[in-house]
Design goal:
single chain, alpha/beta, Rossmann fold, 5-stranded parallel sheet, 5 strands
């Protein structure tokens, strides 16, 4: 009997705009990925500790804890792997892209996100996951 690969990409969507976060989640679930949704940074930190996402789509402008602060907290977690962090924001300026790198994001995508680009990135990440769900090498 051949064991089937049951590795499923786990994506955490974080956006204070409930419609945006829920829509992202529904579309990502259509690809067969497991998705969790949070509407603020503090809740996202708790969810990440339990959900162990492979990728996080994080909005920049959120009340309380902005996306940059969230990324820094995720990168500093004792558990280590914080997943592939994608800043999703309406800001296209080079200054935001620079801030994204400084905060620990792996990628900056501008809203409205090109779904073909996003799903391509996530599919590539999924392809690099080992059977234990951990990335087998650098995603990109």
């Amino acid at each position: 009997m051949v064991a089937m690969d049951t590795t499923m990409l786990k994506v955490l969507c974080v956006d204070d705009n409930h419609d945006a976060a829920d829509s992202e989640a529904m579309l990502l679930e259509l690809y067969g990925w497991e998705v969790a949704v949070c509407y603020d940074g503090a809740t996202a930190l708790l969810e990440a500790a339990n959900f162990h996402p492979d990728a996080c789509l994080i909005d920049y402008n959120m009340p309380g804890m902005n996306g940059c602060e969230l990324a820094q907290h995720l990168r500093a977690r004792e558990e280590g792997n914080s997943g592939y962090l994608i800043l999703v924001t309406a800001h296209a300026a080079d200054s935001i892209a620079k801030v994204a790198v400084e905060c620990g994001f792996d990628l900056h995508m501008v809203k409205p996100v090109d779904w073909e680009d996003l799903t391509g990135v996530l599919a590539k990440l999924e392809g690099r996951l080992g059977s234990d769900g951990a990335a087998t090498e650098s995603a990109f």
